[in-house]
Design goal:
Elements lengths: L1 E5 L4 H12 L3 E6 L18 E5 L14 E4 L6 H6 L1 H22 L2 E7 L26 H21 L3 E6 L2 E2 L10 H11 L3 E4 L5 E3 L1 E2 H12 L7 E3 L4 E3 H11 L6 E4 L14 H6 L8 H19 L1
Parallel strand pairs: 1-2, 1-4, 2-3, 4-5, 5-6, 6-11, 7-10, 8-13
Antiparallel strand pairs: 9-12
Bound molecules: uridine-5'-diphosphate.
The site of uridine-5'-diphosphate has 14 residues, from helix 5 and strand 8.
């Protein structure tokens, strides 16, 4: 197949590109590189089935030739990124999704959008099933991301029902692995960078808030299965193993043999207190569940961060 990935130079987009190329497909990766990086795809440049195009998908997307599938992954995704770039975040979730859907319609391609557990906001239902409508502050600091993704889901369903475009919606929960940026700002990259540099490990709040972290190869497997399934309603993909952020900080400190102390910083506004995916739907319809445990996933990620820190010096 000939497949477009928007955000193809990003953390998840580049892993998706690796996987689709390994499966024998042709991949076009479009990215404006505001949070993505050419380093993530440098190893693919000599592959004749891979093309990179530097483009901002909030502008008209020109794709020459035929297209079978689109994975729409372009967006800042770290809370510090979307706090710095709220307008770009809103535009890529809204205008970028609209443009990508336009390409899908024109080419007769199937399109999968990267939605998020953030559509559930600070959830009042736990764990979160796809049937939960969420608890989102529409004007808070996270709203540029949350509401853009909720709009993206809405316009995707509208293109599906009104124009008959084949669409898929994945709600991605916290994911980690190699190629996250050292300065990404999210919990695992922060803790790893701090632990490896011997700097204080910054836990926000009292660290009792929970998350459930999925290793990137598991996530990619779930996404590819969803794309090639016949499920056109949203599906959660994430790892249901839930832990507190303090537990995660301690785990990373131990794993890296770090002498760093754990320090407490104010909890950002609207930071969800709990989060864990109900993955019954993915288990039932995609026959998918995560396989990589935290120990194994963190070991891979630590190795990448050690290397990345050495090259950044
Ligand atoms: N967090 C933290 N220290 C950090 C970065 C994040 O304690 O240096 C917390 C953050 O407040 C949140 C959790 O870790 O409760 C996960 O945050 P992240 O930014 O990774 O993503 P989120 O799940 O909030 O989108």
């Amino acid at each position: 197949m000939r497949i477009l990935i928007t955000g193809g130079a990003g953390f998840i987009g580049s892993h998706l590109a690796d996987r689709l190329l390994a499966d024998g497909h042709e991949v076009l990766a479009y990215d404006n590189l505001i949070t993505g990086s050419k380093a993530n795809i440098a190893h693919l440049e000599s592959n004749p089935r891979f093309t990179f195009v530097e483009h901002n998908v909030t502008q008209y997307i020109e794709v020459p030739g035929e297209l079978d599938q689109i994975y729409h992954f372009a967006s800042p995704a770290s809370p510090i990124d979307y706090a710095e770039m709220p307008i770009q975040t809103l535009k890529v979730g809204a205008l970028g999704t609209h443009n990508a859907l336009g390409v899908a319609k024109a080419k007769g391609a199937r399109m999968l959008i990267a939605s998020t557990s953030e559509v559930y906001g600070d959830p009042l239902v736990h764990p979160q099933p796809e049937t939960y409508w969420g608890n989102v502050n529409p004007i808070g600091p996270r709203s540029c991301y949350d509401e853009a993704k909720r709009f993206a889901e809405a316009i995707t369903m509208a293109y599906h029902t009104h124009h008959g475009v084949e669409t898929r919606i994945v709600r991605i929960f916290n994911t980690y692995g190699p190629r996250m940026r050292l300065n990404d700002g999210r919990a695992i990259p922060n803790f790893l960078t701090q632990a490896l540099k011997g700097e204080p490990i910054t836990v926000f709040g009292d660290g009792s808030q929970t998350r459930s972290f999925c290793y990137v190869s598991d996530l990619v497997e779930g996404i590819v299965r969803l794309m090639n399934s016949d499920v056109d309603s949203p599906v959660n993909v994430g790892n249901p193993t839930e832990l507190t952020l303090l537990e995660m900080a301690e785990r990373i400190k131990t794993m890296t043999n770090s002498a760093s102390e754990i320090v407490y910083k104010p909890l950002p506004q609207d930071d969800p207190k709990i989060r864990r995916p109900d993955i019954t739907k993915a288990q039932t319809y995609l026959k998918w569940e995560p396989k990589v445990g935290l120990e194994e996933g963190l070991t891979q990620t630590v190795a990448y961060f050690r290397q990345a820190l050495l090259s950044s010096v």
